Amino acid sequence: MKTSIATVSISGNLKEKLEAISAAGFDGVEIFENDFLIYDASPREVGRMVRDAGLEITLFQPFRDFEGMPEPQRGRAFDRAERKFDVMQALGTDLMLVCSNVSDVALGGIDRAAADLRELGDRAARRGLRVGYEALAWGRHISDHRDAWEIVRRADHRSVGLILDSFHTLVRGIDVATIRSIPGDRIFIVQLADAPMVAMDPLYLSRHFRSMPGEGDLPVLDFMRAVAATGYDGPLSLEIFNDQFRGGSAKLISNDGRRSLVFLADQVRRLEPGISMDVTPMPEPARANGVEFVEFVTSEEESGPLLSILKILGFRLHATHRSKQVFLYRQGGINIVVNMEREGFAYSAYLVHGSCAYAMAFKVDDAAAAVERARMLGVEVFEQAVGPGELHIPAVRTISGGVAYFVDASAGLANIWDVDFTPVPTHDDTPVETGLKRIDHVAQTMRADELPSWLLFYLSIFDMRKTPLVDIADPAGLVRSQVVESADGALRLTLNGAENRRTLAGHFIAESFGSNIQHLAFETNDIFVTAQALKVNGFSPLRVPENYYEDVEARFGLDPALSDRMREAGILYDRDDRGEYFQLYSPVLGEGFFFEIVQRADQYRGYGAPNAPFRIAAQKRHLLPEGMPHDSSSQRISATGAGLKE
Ligand code: MG
Ligand code: MG
Questions:
Q1: What gap in Å lies between CA 202 and CA 196, rounded to an integer?
Q2: CA 20 / ligand 1 centre spacing (Å)
Q3: Which pLDDT value is given to residue 371?
Q4: What's the confidence (pLDDT) of residue 624?
Q5: How much distance in Å is there from the Cα of 154 to the middle of ligand 2?
Q6: Are the beta carbons of 297 and 346 closer than 8 angstroms?
């Protein structure tokens, strides 16, 4: 499989784009005419730059408003084409994209368009060039790939072929099965893009909100399965117009793009075993069985608030590392690692972010296979020196540069806690257990423009699905929240994209310099019993305003006795068609980290999103008390101190 990406998809000048595209492992690029025009080099020099970067030019585009014109526009269009052919020959590419005419003066007519393309094909053939015809979803007369194919078929010229673009087909809801009857060798190139499912003019959606396959809501996989069925074996080329991508990191977007294509091809290979696709087989998506541990990094001086809240939550110091300043706190099936080393990767994370949860370990069926799959998806494998006799835990670097570990039930990895750690006996100081059983979900916060990258990271490595994006209202702006979860709920992640730093999520990432895990939610079987035990340990929950209980009682028709119990313990409530959800929040630590305790009754599937605005408002009152200067150093102490002593 050859991979390609349009230069328009990423940021930078042409040289920077080519470097990033090449480094991500693409085979080719579509040269978007504008990128080339604004770059100060001749077509010949640009062609050399592309080849020097180890790339080929898969396509030159776009050639607009060509077919079906009356004179004199028709003659001028052919003259224009000859000029573009000159440029293409100097660049060293043989394929031009002709997109369907959007001009008001275009006359329409399948045969007229076919005749024009046939003549263009003759002219192209004389120079050893080819033209591909693409239906734009907003074309004046041709807006459907079926009509574009009919024109190409009637043009009946070996230098004239069809260009398919998933966006144009899918945004108009055209049945992708209609692609299956097109001969693969008549398709000159396939362009791929996804987009969110929003009611919006297709042209505007296309120009601003396209995304990598898998990041949006369009059935790009179905489209690609149909393409594969035709026998098409040319490049898969990304053509993504997206405002955030064009302003984002060229390296990140290029890596995402390549990952999205490898992931898509792997899905097609698994779903269409009868179709031979030229792709390297890779391990199957990792089955996510939960979180084995979350690792915090801190220092002896700064560790007080964290250790104190862990104790209040009922975590017991269970074991200490044999050779390092690393401590295991445990309750139920939850392992919290606290790392106070003064060297290694954890310490570098501490120097950048301060005290934070910087890594987590995923339980999978086969850790080595999961890392190999990630590597084949272009994810960097993480290696760190281990001491003699200590375990090597397979790991990769995440989007933000953190670490994701993988553990499985194989010999060695199954008993990481026995190999590297020495148990600590219980003692007088051992806290009361509070009934926390397992990690229900981990909430990660990131800049909104990095949300798609994280989404693709998880969806491509693991066997997980996403649920629709939800907007959460923070008094200072919106936070976009996207859930990624395994089908059985064993691993649940909420990804929160902060648009600005005045939201709680935005404040957290700004003040922790991109730290990522913002809250851990623990599951209990009985939140009222847990709340009672927490009280004994000295826990003071986040204070929820009285208005909340009035509202929730009315909204759900709750028994006043139940809402009284919730009010007393600071518990929040939600319900869906399957069951009930109870939530209890800790105050914030540092710049916005917190713990959550949840009880899922029956089959409740959500995360209490309707409660998030109440929670955020309460946390912000706590983190940034009115009248206090927005100085982070003073707040860190005051916020934490107040939260833990109240
Ligand atoms: Mg296109
Ligand atoms: Mg939560």
A1: 11
A2: 21
A3: 98
A4: 64
A5: 58
A6: yes
Q: How far apart are CA 265 and CA 238, in angstroms?
A: 13
Ligand 2 (single-atom ion) residues, CB below 5 Å: 521, 596
- How high is the pLDDT of residue 555? 94
For residue 441, how far is its CA from the centre of ligand 2 (angstroms)?
7
Q: Rounded to the nearest whole angstrom, what is the distance from the C-alpha of residue 134 to the centroid of ligand 1?
A: 7
Q: Give residue for tokens 């049945």.
A: 175
Question: What fold, for 288-423?
Answer: 2,3-Dihydroxybiphenyl 1,2-Dioxygenase; domain 1 (3.10.180)
Single out the residue of 210, 193, 245, 206 nearest to residue 17, CA to CA: 245
Q: What is the pLDDT of residue 625?
A: 56
Instruction: Determine the distance separating the centroid of ligand 1 and the alpha carbon of 459, expressed in angstroms.
Output: 25
Half-sphere exposure of 102 (CA within 13 A, CB side): 12
Say if CB 195 and CB 209 are below 8 A apart.
Answer: yes
Portions of the chain given CATH number 3.20.20.150: 3-271
Residue numbers in the chain where pLDDT is lower than 50: 627-646
Sign (positive or negative) of CA dihedral 47, 50, 56, 59: negative
**CATH 3.10.180.10 domain span(s) along the chain:** 288-423, 436-623
CB burial of residue 629 (10 Å; 0-12, 13-18, 19+): exposed
pLDDT the model gives residue 633: 37
Predicted local confidence at residue 331, as pLDDT: 96
Q: Which CATH superfamily is domain 3-271 in?
A: Divalent-metal-dependent TIM barrel enzymes (3.20.20.150)
Question: Residue 581 C-alpha to ligand 2 middle, in angstroms?
Answer: 11
- Under 8 Å between Cβ of 193 and 145: no
Q: Report residue 112 as tokens.
A: 């007229």
Q: What is the CATH number of domain 436-623?
A: 3.10.180.10
Q: Which ligand is nearest to the CA of 206?
A: 1
Identify the nearest ligand to the CA of 6 by its number: 1
Rg over alpha carbons for the chain, rounded to the nearest Å, is: 28
Judge contact between 306 and 517, C-beta under 8 A: no
Ligand nearest to the CA of 606: 2
Q: Which ligand is nearest to the CA of 586?
A: 2
* Cα-to-centroid distance, 128 and ligand 1 (Å): 23
pLDDT the model gives residue 438: 97
d(CA 100, CA 116): 12
The pTM of this model reads 0.93
Give the 3-state secondary structure of residue 28. Answer: strand
Q: Is the distance from CB of 120 to CB of 131 less than 8 angstroms?
A: yes
Q: How far from 538 is each of 219, 303, 528, 639, 643, CA to CA, in Å? A: 51, 18, 15, 17, 11
Tell how far CA 582 is from the center of its chain.
28
How many whole angstroms from 224 Cα to the centroid of ligand 1?
15
Question: How many angstroms separate the alpha carbon of residue 288 from the centre of ligand 2?
Answer: 19
CB 337 within 8 A of CB 324: no
- The alpha carbon of 578 and the centre of ligand 2 are apart by a number of angstroms equal to 18
Chain centre distance of CA 601: 30
**Residue-level pLDDT at 135:** 98
pLDDT value at residue 514: 65
